[in-house]
Each structure stands twice: as structure tokens, then as C-alpha cells.
Design goal:
It is a single chain. The protein is of the alpha+beta class. The protein folds into two domains: about 50 residues, no CATH class; about 90 residues, RNA polymerase II/Efflux pump adaptor protein, barrel-sandwich hybrid domain (OB fold (Dihydrolipoamide Acetyltransferase, E2P)). Helices cover about 25% and strands about 35% of the residues. The strands form three sheets. It has a four-stranded antiparallel sheet with strand order 4-11-9-6, with no helix packed on it. Strands 8-7-5-10 form a four-stranded antiparallel sheet, with no helix packed on it. It has a three-stranded antiparallel sheet with strand order 1-2-3, with no helix packed on it. The chain is elongated, with a radius of gyration of 18 Å. The termini are far apart. Pfam families: Biotin_lipoyl.
């Protein structure tokens, strides 16, 4: 299944009354689930050998994540007293709900657990990312409208 076909499927589901769709073939397995809190798209390739071609393409995509995470670890070691808010998914990071609005949070702002700190767009679905800790934003680690990886640190928060 091509990316365009997956996007068309997601668009169809978002316009329909369906909340969840599961599709499984010999070559792939896809699960699309829609709810009101957050929209999540999950796709997984099965272990059989016919899927060997997509598996190598997935491995290089994970390699930059490891290298970008490795590049940020020295900076994180300087800031050990801070807690990171990390991206729960792969997508595009946005600091504002739209270009005309101010940023959700800025350096120096106080946040509480559950406050929205940014949006990550994944396949045209805008997912509000909430802080899981309370504290003060001390550093924004990602530029607006840039791609982010799963588990990539987005913000550093001083919990004290």
C-alpha cells in the first residue's frame, strides 16, 4: 500500500462516522483509530519475508533518529536537572495552533501537567502534545515547522 492510498484511507475515515479501521494482508497490517482526544495512526509491517523490502527502508529512517538523539545527548548531559518533554510520534513540530496565534509556550513560561505545549502533525492529523510534568520551560529544543522523530526531546522543563 502506497503512502497516497494510506492518506486517502485516513481522509475517508475522518469524513465517515467510523472510529477505527483494521486492514491486514499478507504484505502489511495497518490500524487507523480516531478519537476525540488525539488522533493516532499506527502502521506495522509483519515479520514474514515478503515484507523484507520495506524493512530496510524503515531501518535507515530509524538510523537518523539514533544519530539525532546521539547529537542531543551531550546537550542533555549539561542539563541533567531538567526533564524533557518528548515527542510521542513522528511528524512535523508546530509551536502555534496556526500562524496567526502566539506560541503555546515560550522559554520562562510555567506549565502544568496536561497543558498543551505544541502540535505534532502526522499524516495531516494535528495532535496536541501535552506536558506530562509541571514546571518552567527552560529550553525549546526544536525549531517551528521542522520534522521530529519518536521520543525526540522537544522541551526542557525545570520541575522545581
Amino acid at each position: 500500500m502506497k503512502a497516497k492510498e494510506i492518506q486517502d484511507l485516513i481522509d475517508f475515515i475522518s469524513k465517515s462516522g467510523l472510529d477505527e479501521v483494521n486492514i491486514e494482508t499478507e504484505e502489511f497490517k495497518i490500524k487507523v483509530k480516531k478519537n476525540t482526544e488525539a488522533k493516532v495512526v499506527q502502521a506495522a509491517a509483519p515479520a514474514p519475508q515478503p515484507v523484507a523490502a520495506p524493512a530496510p527502508s524503515a531501518a535507515p529512517a530509524e538510523t537518523p533518529a539514533a544519530s539525532s538523539g546521539g547529537g542531543e545527548k551531550p546537550a542533555a548531559s549539561d542539563d541533567d536537572k531538567y526533564v524533557a518533554i518528548k515527542s510521542p510520534m513522528i511528524g512535523t513540530f508546530y509551536r502555534t495552533p496556526n500562524p496567526d496565534n502566539p506560541a503555546f509556550v515560550n522559554v520562562g513560561d510555567s506549565v502544568k501537567a496536561g497543558d498543551t505545549v505544541c502540535i505534532v502533525e502526522a499524516m495531516k492529523l494535528f495532535n496536541e502534545i501535552e506536558s506530562d510534568i509541571s514546571g518552567k520551560i527552560v529550553k525549546i529544543l526544536v525549531d517551528n515547522a521542522t520534522p521530529v522523530e519518536y521520543d525526540q526531546p522537544l522541551f526542557l522543563v525545570d520541575p522545581s
